[in-house]
Every structure is written in C-alpha cells, then in structure tokens.
Sequence to fold (792 residues):
Amino acid sequence: MKNFEFKILNSDKKSKARVGQFKTPHGVINTPVYMPVGTKASVKTLSPDELHDIGAEIILANTYHLYLRPGEKTIKKMGGLQKWTNWKKPMLTDSGGFQVFSLAQKKGFTKKCSKTLVKIKEDGVEFKSHLDGSTHFFTPEKAIKIQSDLGADIIMAFDECAPVHASKKYITEAMQRTHRWAERCKKEHQKLQKNKKNKQALFPIIQGGIFDDLRTQSAKFIAELDLPGIAIGGLSVGESKEKMYHILDLINPYLPKNKPRYLMGVGSPDDILEAVSHGIDMFDCVMATRNARHGSFWTLNGRSHLANAVYKNDKDSLMKGCKCYTCKNYSASYVRHLFMEQEMLGLRLLTIHNVYFLVDLMEQIRKNILNDKFEKFKKTFIKRFKYEKQDHKLSF
Amino acid sequence: MKNFEFKILNSDKKSKARVGQFKTPHGVINTPVYMPVGTKASVKTLSPDELHDIGAEIILANTYHLYLRPGEKTIKKMGGLQKWTNWKKPMLTDSGGFQVFSLAQKKGFTKKCSKTLVKIKEDGVEFKSHLDGSTHFFTPEKAIKIQSDLGADIIMAFDECAPVHASKKYITEAMQRTHRWAERCKKEHQKLQKNKKNKQALFPIIQGGIFDDLRTQSAKFIAELDLPGIAIGGLSVGESKEKMYHILDLINPYLPKNKPRYLMGVGSPDDILEAVSHGIDMFDCVMATRNARHGSFWTLNGRSHLANAVYKNDKDSLMKGCKCYTCKNYSASYVRHLFMEQEMLGLRLLTIHNVYFLVDLMEQIRKNILNDKFEKFKKTFIKRFKYEKQDHKLSF
Fold:
C-alpha cells in the first residue's frame, strides 16, 4: 500500500480539467483543491475547527517563517505541525525558497542593491532575516531537513524563483540551478525518509520564466525526477494571464497524467477556473484571507468592499444563498460595523466567507467535471463574476 | 407575570454573599454573574457562539461608542442589539456617562484643561467625540432614548462619575446632579416603556466618591427610586481596596435585599470574590479580554504572561485541568507562538481562556454559596491566587 496515491475519477471532455483524489497519511484530498495559506502555522484569524467546518481539506505552512520563529526544532519537539496546531488533516509546507528571495529583499536592512542581501551560490542561498537582519544560509538539503522536522504531508523542493523581468540568461541559470537543487532535495529526502515513521511526499518545481523553450526543458526535467507530484512555480508573478495559460498549455504534454499538479500562488476565483481547465489540480493563494482583512469579499457577482455605505443598513447576508457560517448568522450591516471598527471578529467573519467561497467553488468544480458540465459551468461563472466585478468598480 | 424578577436561592451564613436568579426577557441570569464587555457590540475577538460555549449568560455593550458609530438608529433598524449581533441571551448597555467623562478627556483634542472638553450643565453634558472631535450633547433623557433604541434588557441611568480625587464639595454636587438625573431617567424610561414591546429594566447608580456620608445618602436615594436593580459606580477608580470594601459594607443596610446589585467595572478574580462576600451580584470588567490581548492569562496560581520563555516548549495547556476550548485543544507552546507572532487566533484563544476562567469562577462561587461553603472556598482561592501571583512576579 502506497503512502501517497493519486487517482483520477473523471477527465473533462472539452478541456484538460480532471477530478481526482490524492491520498496522504493524514487523509484524502479531493482535487482540484484550494489550500488556505497558514504562513506562520495559522490561517490568519481562523481556528482549525473553523477550517474544518468550512470544508478545507489541506492547509499550507511556511518553512521560512517557521524556521525563523519558533524554529523547526520546537515544532518537532511538540510533535510536528499537525499535532502542534491541532489541524488533523493534510498539510503542505513550501521550501522557503520564495520567501528567501522576496521577503529578504522587501524589508531592506541595507539600502544597497538586493544582491548584497541574498547571495546565491551553487551550494545554496545566504539571506538576511526580514525580522532582525541576522544572516542565514539555506541549502537544498537544509530546506528538506527543516521540512522533515516540521512534518507536513507534502513538502516542496528548494527552488529559485527568479524575477519575471530578469534576462533570459539569468532565468536559464536560475532554472538550471533549480534543477540541480531539485536532484539534491530528492536525494536528501530519500535519505531522511528511510528512518521516518511519518511519510512525506516531495514535490519538485518547474521554473523557466516566460520562455517557451525553458519551460519545456524544465517540465521534462522535473517530470523525469518521478516524484509523487509536480509544482509549477514562477507564474502569476507579473506576466500576463494569457502568457500564464499559454505556458500551462505548453508544458501540459510533458506532465505525467497520473500525478497531481500544483500551480503555486494562484489565485482568484476566475484564475482558478481557467487553470483547472488547463489541467491544474492544486492551488494556494493568500487572496481569500488577505482581501478579507482589508474588508473585501467575493460574491458570485465579483468582488465587493464593506466600506461601501450600501451595506450600513443591509439586513441581508454578504451573499445571497451562501451557506458559510458568516452568511448564515450575520447581516452585512453587522459585519460592516465590525470591519469599520477593526473588531477582530469582523476580520474573522470575512475570512470565513472568502475561504468558504473558494472551497465551495472547488466543490462545484469537481461536481461539474464529474458530470461533464465543467466548461459550461466555468463560462457562466466567469461571465457573471467578471462582468459584475467591473460594474461594481464603476459604482465607486 | 413580571418581566424582571430577582429570586434569592440561598444566602451565605458567614458573609453577605447570596446566590440568585434574575429573570429578563432574553433569559435567566444566574448571580453572582460576570458580564463580558462588548464595547462596540463585540466582545473583542469572540463570536457569540464562543461566548455561549464558554457559558456567558449576559454581555455588555456601550452606548457612547454605538451612538457615535454606527448610530443607535442603524441598530434599531436592524432589529436591536441582540438580533444585530446574533447574541440571543440577555444584554446590558451602560448609559455612556462614564465614557463621556473619561474618553473625551483622554484623547485631548485640545490641550486646554479638561473643563473645555466636557461641559457639565444641569440639563446634561456637552462633550467632544474621541473619534473626530465633533461636539455632542447627552441629557438623561437622550441616554435613555438611545438605550431604548439599542434594545438591551438592562439599561443604566445617566450619571456623573466624578474623579476620585475631586473635592468633597464637587463630589457632593456631582452626586446630587446624578440623583436628579436618575429621576429624569426613570421618568423618561417609564414614558418610553409604555408603547414598547421589548421591556427593559433601568438600573440607577449610587455615587458619592469615598465619603461615608455621601455614599449613605446616595444609597438611600437610589434605593428609594424602587427600580428593578441597583448599581454602584465610582468605585475601583483609584481608591484603596480596603476603602472599596468599607463602602460596600457601609451601604449594604440601605440596599433592598430583593434586588440585584451591580458593582460597575470590577474586577480581577480576587476582587470579585471579595465583592461577592460583600453582597454584590453582578460584575463587568475588561480585564479578562484586555489582558488576553496583551498576552497575559489567569490560572489558579495567579497571573502569567506568555512572553515567558518557559512556555516555548510547553506541551501542556495554559492551565492544568481547565476545561476551556483553548486548554482542551492547544498547548501553551502553540498559543505562545501565535501570541508572539500577533496572530489573531492567539489573541482569541487567550481571550477564551480568560473569560472562561471568570465565568467558571462565578459558577464555583454560586455552587459554594448554595452549599454554605463560600467563605472557605474564597479563602483557599485567594490565598493560592495571591501568593503565587507574587511568587510568579519574582521569577521575571
């Protein structure tokens, strides 16, 4: 009996969409799946029980943040991520690569160019903590070791996500380094798994920027590593949506059908629908939680903002017919008041609604793929969602 | 059948403590009771369901804050406080008096002396909003009208809580004004109640600073108004604890036995126990919720702070044997991590623990009064709570 197994239940006739199940040690994940992001081992404002009630099947945590605080050794001592956080279902940790390259630059502990903050070598990356400027060094092996200590079901290879506007020369180098690092990650992972009770699945990451030849090359290389899943990184980072879908189409033939495909950092409801139709099975995005904390929420009519005075005396729920805890129990008027007063309950109620919106969307996506009605569902959803979104913006 | 009824189930033999039940339109309150404070119509970080699960029987909201935002008319339109907030049990609103005198001075929209900010006249009080400096005028009648619109079960008379260190002359004037205002509140309340479906109980407030003769005079006057409950204001505002208990003893003979007594703004677990033994039935205090947001929590051994490094690798709950949601599901290590990272879930988990600690304490108090074991319970609790509190402080 395998620890990880991916089974396709149905494939859409008109698109590349498929519905499947990915078995992990902490339970089965129904794909396509949206994974709420719990950066610091907490999906912001929500408890594990709320995530369970919402219907979330897997959540993310972040290696970079947890390595800095409280440290992976503490979490290991406490029994690993799931025991520590009281989230009993599957978890995924990213490798920290993305944060090393993005966060360390953002905070600017020095005004010199970013190259002095992140030093990329063949062996690994030297970076400064965004918290206190202290210097750290991540190698592929270390990223795997930390993730082994954290103990999630799915762990990610350490990659370099090069800036989208970097030169082709640089993107090529970064991709080749990512490939060599992926091999080292695989080797380290196999070594660590030998003596480990809790089994983990390692997903390597395709890179290559917006260049067709590089993406093809990377897809082939990563597929050949023959690991239980495949991730696509470096997309949705500034390139056009058309470009993103083009690349998904381009690499599709090189991706083994019998493995889950994870498009990292995507996305909005309409992006997710499009990506599903391009063959993607797994998604993560902070939009649902971050938007909520800034007062905006999704409905079938697009995105709205609670600051809008129309909600002040609105007795109805945020979204008609929505079955989330927030919409079943509170009026838009009360949620708006809580948000305007920055009461934490308001941020939580909005987060519950947004996360439920995506989780529920995924359920509908799966149902419609199973019933061979996906393309129609997608078109109807996107038309309404996009049209009203624009319409709504005009009303401000 | 009366809308409000207070029934004493047992009185302690050795102290003035009593256990009772106060019937209101939204349900029965078991006294002595602790009422969590939901200043802006939300007990900070908690949902109504969590408060229900904790065992809270009544919560507070604040007239001053809700009058300013979103405005009592909005809340009235939305069906009143309970419907709006989805809290189905009893509620109490204070009159806004305390905030008018304290908040308006704190924010300092002008650097001149506080008299220019709050203008006290016989008719009422002119004050400036702490939000935007706009000028407002509260009369006793207006405070009652706003509370009528908000729709809580228990509403408070508009009083003047004079600074504890003011002259006896000033405290006398403020007390006499408070008495005249209480009469006007009663009159307005009776007028408004006539055509009202939702019945409300008005509690007038005893003032008189730390002066024995004034407190006696005020207790007599307020008792003679013959309203369903009596509140004691202007205590726990800077005077010594001995003074507070002395005043509670002093006024006790003048308070009708068959009405609930509410000591406003008190207090810590040990203060509550002492006040119960001095005949108090109702308490409110922001300490449980505010302390939580600053990382501190109660155990039977006193107050602790999560910043303490001993909790970093602590697999146990915050308090051994505690049956709150937090202690049943999370280790001190995880709650500490969430607090240190300022994750909202951490603040919520700490708030749940602290509010449960007080609600559970009240249940134990009631049980022990019923079994004639209150004084022993009180002594044992306070000895351990205070001793360990000091001991703990030394360890920092």
Remarks:
- The first helix of chain A runs from residue 48 to 54.
- Chain A touches chain B through 35 residues (CB under 8 Å).
- Chain A has two domains: 18-95+144-285, 295-394.
